[in-house]
Amino acid sequence: MPILFFGSLKILLKFNDNNKFITYSPFLNEFRILEQLLEGKVIVLNEVHSTNQYIIDNIPYIRSGDACVTEHQTQGRGRQGKIWVAPFRESICLSIYWTLNKTPPIVTELSIMISIIVARILKNLGVSQIKIKWPNDLYIYGKKLAGILIEIITRTDNIAHIIIGIGINLSIRTSTTLNKQIGKNWTTLKDIGIMIDRNILVATLINTLHKKLKDFIRFGFDPFMSYWKIFDYLYNKPVTLLIGNRIIYGTALGINMHGALIVDQSDLIGYYTGDNISVCLP
Q1: Same structural domain for residues 114 and 188?
Q2: Is 51 within 8 Å of 95 (Cβ atoms)?
Q3: Which residues, 6+ apart, have CB-to-CB distance to 183 below 8 Å?
Q4: Residue 126 buriedness (CB in 10 A; 0-12 / 13-18 / 19+)
Q5: How many CB atoms lie within 10 A of CB 32?
Q6: Domain CATH number, residue 267
Q7: Fewer beta carbons within 10 angstroms: which end of the chain, N or C?
Q8: Please, what are the averages of pLDDT over each run of 10 residues along the chain (282 residues)?
Q9: What's the pTM?
Q10: Is 122 found in the same domain as 54?
Q11: SS3 sequence, the chain?
Q12: Is the dihedral of CA 184, 187, 191, 195 positive or negative?
């Protein structure tokens, strides 16, 4: 993908099949995204409470592989009931719907797999130092750039309805209010000198995840394990795990074959997984 340089800012460009430049646009455009998709459809909303919730509310009317993206989320959410702040037209707020006619996958495995795919896409677009903080937060230079939220619903139809939420900070303007809402350790692609047309990024995310979700269903988690060492933000760092009322101290040593976090606690090696775990660094 061609890149233009304006001072320290890199703008990623794309050409269509006739080798004509697709004009950079700060706005989401459903037609622009659809013409780049290999399959499925995308719904572009100007504003919505939550793209994940929109998918959940519309499960009877959409198909596996369909996606929803919005200019602005008013009630975006993250893991453990936390909010995901996404100012108007300054982020990617994307949800993809997927179904399985079998036992639902382990959420941790799926979260890590999706995080690895998003990290690889961003790395290919120039975010060379991208890392993943277990299980599904993407960091650059010690600051949070993106996050993944997986929600799985099982109903009487014996189908696992999987909603994959992806949030990426593109160009959020710093403010005191936002710092209080998001927390101090956050960053954006613009902060590291990268601007990309959101239509291109959304289409790339959807196309790649369609392919990799099919691979995940066929081959499981194993093929993705080898990438974890490349992106592991916590490896060999002291960590504090908060699990309900429990506090666990140790050193992170990667993940096991099911995506559980391995922690050296001096007197024993622990394996931790589940959506109720918060991992903190000193």
Answers
A1: yes
A2: yes
A3: 144
A4: middle
A5: 21
A6: 2.30.30.100
A7: C
A8: 43 47 67 95 94 94 96 68 60 93 83 96 93 95 92 83 93 53 73 89 96 93 93 97 95 96 96 91 88
A9: 0.85
A10: yes
A11: CCEEEECCEEEECCECCCCCECCCCCCCCHHHHHCCCCCCCEEEECCECCHHHHHHHCHHHCCCCCEEEECCECCCECHHHCECCCCCCCEEEEEEEEEECCCCCCHHHHHHHHHHHHHHHHHHCCCCCCEEECCCEEEECCEEEEEEEEEEEECCCCCEEEEEEEEEECCCCCCHHHHHHHCCCECCCHHHCEEECHHHHHHHHHHHHHHHHHHHHHHCCHHHHHHHHHHECCCCCEEEEEECCEEEEEEEEEECCCCCEEEECCCCEEEECCCCEEEECC
A12: negative
Is the distance from CB of 29 to CB of 199 less than 8 angstroms?
yes
The residues near 169 (Cβ < 8 Å, ≥ 6 apart) are 90, 91, 144, 145, 146, 186, 187, 188, 189
Residue 85: what pLDDT?
Answer: 58
Q: Which residues contact residue 157 at a Cβ distance below 8 angstroms, ignoring those fewer than 6 apart?
A: none
The number of residues in the chain equals 282
Domain around 85: 3-231
Q: Is 139 in the same domain as 257? A: no
